[in-house]
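[job 0412] stage=complex_fold ligand=NAP status=START
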Amino acid sequence: MSDTIERVKCLIIGSGPAGYTAAIYAARANMKPVLYQGIEPGGQLTTTTEVENYPGYPDGITGPEMMIEFRKQAERFDTDVRDGWVTKVDFSGDVHKVWVNDTKEIHCDTVIISTGASAKYLGLPSEQKYLKLGGGVSACAICDGFFYRGQEVVIVGGGDSACEEAHYLSKLCKKVTMLVRRDAFRASKIMEARVRNTENIEILHNTNTEEVLGDGQVVTGVRTKNNVTGEIIDIPATGFFAAIGHKPNTDIFKDYLDRDDTGYIINVSGTSKTNIEGVFVSGDAADHVYRQAVTAAGTGCMAALDAERYLAAKEVTVKA
Ligand code: NAP
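[job 0412] stage=complex_fold status=DONE, emitting structure tokens
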């Protein structure tokens, strides 16, 4: 443990659009925010190529560039942006305790959680290779589908996300092949019916992904294996979409904050408040529905405003 404990008015955990927007608002409200970037500075957007759906960028911008702009704006108002990974919290007392890299202890009046969620991938070496190259692997059809207009793509997953994203892709792409590993969907019946009734979506059940095929630079197809018959089929495709779920990065809060079955933090409806006073949540850590940069930024703003009002109410109580 560290020998000097730092006291902070507003600590922001996470550096995606939610965290940086919270920082901009908190800094402008003179809350002197300290923001810890976490293990993936910039968050999920740094794994996206072009962002074309964030208002204010008519010509689009790459995800990493956009996050640099967000950071610059937060620093312009004196946000203290730091490297470091929050490894432990203790929200049991009036002062919220946070540990960074297991050593540095910080006592916070308010904490804004913006730790996001991570898309799950299959983990195949070929999938990871083309993901890193930006060569045709994605976990976000809404972000990247546009780049595959008129082309053939493959999407893996049988949940609501996979159905929603396959349907979205079907409006842009010539053909969408869905790989569902079981003989049944996990998705709701209505979402399943939507993909079944879409002409240019082909559904392959009992089908696993063996390999993402490519020419060394970009994806050219997907090798699949039927897990009942053993039949191997190569499907031509220029895009491979993983839609097998997301994991919210909320495990370190599990002893204190209410979370749903999949780990998303439960906020008080219409606010960023959690079940602990002075602890607020923004972005994908609490959102399994929208998961967009612009919605994350919106809830980051809410969290900073809620934190500011919480502190103001506390000061009034102390003075009275
Ligand atoms: P999900 O419900 O957990 O579904 C994940 C899907 O991916 C399942 O079909 C699962 O197969 C498959 N899968 C998991 N690991 C796999 C692997 N290694 N290889 C191949 N397939 C794999 O996740 P989600 O679809 O992201 O949905 C998450 C939550 O958000 C759900 O509660 C959902 O209802 C909700 N949601 C709602 C909407 C909406 O209402 N508009 C939209 C999106 C999401 P198995 O079934 O065999 O496990």
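The mean pLDDT is 94.
[job 0412] exit 0
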